[in-house]
Amino acid sequence: MNESAAQDFCCGDCGNLLEITDASWNSSNPTALKSLWRERRTLNESLDLSGVWRFRELLPVPADEQRVVTLLEGNTPLYELPQSSRAFGVPRLYAKHQGMNPTGSFKDAGMTVAATFARQAGYKWVACASTGNTSASMAAYAARGGMRSLVLVPEGKISWSKLSQALDYGALTCQLRTDFDGCLRLLQELVRRAPVYQLNSINPFRLEGQKTLAFELLEQLDWEPPDHIIVPGGNLGNSSAIGKALLEMLDIGLIPRLPKLSIIQAAGANALVRTLRDAGGKQLVSVQAETRATAIRIGNPASWEKAVRVLRATGGACEEVSELEIAQAKAEIGAEGIGCEPASAVTLAGLKKMLRQGFVKPEETVVLVLTGNLLKDPDFTMEFHQGTLFQGTADERESAKLDRFRHPPVVIDATLDAVMKTLEQAEKSDPI
Ligand code: F0G
Question: What is the 344 CA–ligand 1 centroid distance (Å)?
Answer without folding.
Answer: 9
